UniProtKB/TrEMBL annotation:
Organism this protein belongs to: Marinobacterium aestuariivivens
Domain annotation Transposase IS116/IS110/IS902 C-terminal: ranges: 296-368
Descriptive protein name: IS110 family transposase
Residue ranges of every copy of the Transposase IS110-like N-terminal domain listed in the record: 30-185
Length: 424
């Protein structure tokens, strides 16, 4: 395949009469390489021939591209296939969807691995990527790109917002911890860093010196904030520590920084609480979410529904497992026996939340804990394999619970084979 084969033409310079003559009413695959600005596409027929490679500037010419395809390929059987490259291709997908043009998705990892497959050259560039994407589609290695539902889009946005708030809150908490270690090191040993009482005290006074200057007002503030949850001896201890602290005295700017960090943390707490209330309301209104919630918890259930849709959309538990990238792969050759590992395809954020759900399950369920210990012992002490196995069992449980089954953790394990449980 020569370099000349990958020569591209600007959208406005394409000789469409010549292109239509070459196509001869054959089925056409419009394979698109998505980028930030410079988009490329090729028109490929079932004989694997590229009849034109066109390029255009996104977003300025993207609408013109869709209108041109509609006009010049009218009456022809054509589809568009593209990679889900971040969010850059979403406007093009929306325009194609509105024009009722079928869109297929090529997995980026397949495109990368096929770089050398068709021409023996491991290089990859925009025009060649179009060719590879088109070939993958003609060989049935793509899937129909389904538009996410309004519910999924709302859930994704709210969960991203929750994650943003939590990350920002954690960063502020880390900064506050560092500053208190310098100016009031005793305070975090009396009240936890995220204690509302401590945060309100810092937001109002900012430094132990300011608390020392108004001890009675500071005590009243603590009592109003902590209410019945704050023990009198705890507030007294915090006041005493402000008197005897070994921390460095604050300059005015340092005191203001402490106050600002505390105010920011309090604001983040309120925002997170409000968002969690909205998410909980979704659980109450959705039967599917309520069922999944019993297996993996509130936020994980919402995340799975947002990223993958309903478990009912998958014909088997194995398909659902594969969509999460938790199906197994092996690399063996001759006498070498490779280890089984998960493929890690699909949304990594969903696997991360499942991992946390598995850890919670491991901590709170006696059967799961003993099963994991027995498996780790069989695997030479590797706990990570046991956690991965628990994640896989959770996914299978989710698929069945999504179809109305009652969740029973003991059904996922051979309890009779666990020595620790039999001894108990």
């Amino acid at each position: 395949m020569s370099k000349r084969k990958f020569r591209s033409t600007a959208l406005q310079d394409v000789d469409w009469a010549n292109v239509r003559e070459k196509l001869k009413n054959q089925p056409v695959v419009v394979a698109v390489d998505v980028a930030k600005i410079d988009f490329y596409a090729t028109l490929m027929t079932p004989d694997r021939q590229m009849h034109v490679i066109l390029r255009w500037k996104h977003p300025l010419q993207t609408r013109a591209l869709v209108e041109t395809l509609q006009a010049q390929l009218a009456g022809m059987n054509f589809v568009v296939v593209m990679e889900p490259t971040g969010t850059y291709g979403d406007p093009l997908f929306d325009l194609l969807h509105q024009a009722r043009i079928p869109v297929y998705r090529a997995a980026p990892n397949r495109t990368n691995k096929a770089a050398e497959l068709y021409d023996g050259v491991p290089s990859m560039h925009d025009a060649k990527a179009c060719y590879v994407i088109g070939r993958l589609h003609l060989e049935n290695n793509t899937e129909r790109w389904i538009e996410p539902t309004a519910q999924q889009r709302e859930l994704k946005a709210e969960l991203k917002l929750l994650e943003m708030y939590q990350e920002r809150s954690q960063r502020s908490l880390n900064r506050l911890e560092a500053l208190l270690a310098r100016h009031w090191p005793e305070a975090p040993h009396i009240l936890s860093l995220d204690s509302v009482t401590l945060l309100q005290t810092l937001a109002h006074y900012g430094s132990p010196a300011a608390v020392r200057a108004a001890p009675e007002e500071a005590l009243q503030l603590m009592c109003r904030t902590g209410r019945s949850g704050l023990k009198p001896e705890t507030s007294a201890q915090l006041l005493a520590s402000a008197e005897t602290t070994i921390g460095r005295a604050c300059e005015d700017a340092e005191r203001y920084l402490l106050q600002t960090l505390a105010e920011d943390l309090l604001a983040q707490r309120l925002a997170i609480r409000e968002l969690e209330r909205r998410l909980e309301a979704r659980l109450a209104d959705d039967e599917m979410l309520s069922r999944l919630h019993t297996v993996v918890g509130r936020v994980t259930a919402l995340m799975l529904l947002a990223e993958l849709g309903s478990p009912q959309d998958y014909p088997s538990a194995a398909h659902y497992l594969k969509a999460l990238g938790l199906n197994l792969k092996e690399r063996s050759s001759g006498k070498h026996k490779g280890q089984l590992k998960i493929t890690k395809r699909g949304p990594s954020i969903a696997r991360r939340y499942l991992y946390w759900a598995a850890l919670r399950w491991l901590k709170h369920n006696r059967v799961v804990k003993h099963w994991a210990e027995a498996k780790a012992q069989r695997d030479g002490g590797s706990k990570s394999k046991a956690i991965t196995a628990i994640m896989r069992k959770l996914v299978r449980a989710l698929w069945h619970v999504g179809r109305g089954a009652i969740f029973d953790p003991n059904r996922l394990f051979n309890v009779a084979a666990l020595p620790a449980l039999k001894a108990a």
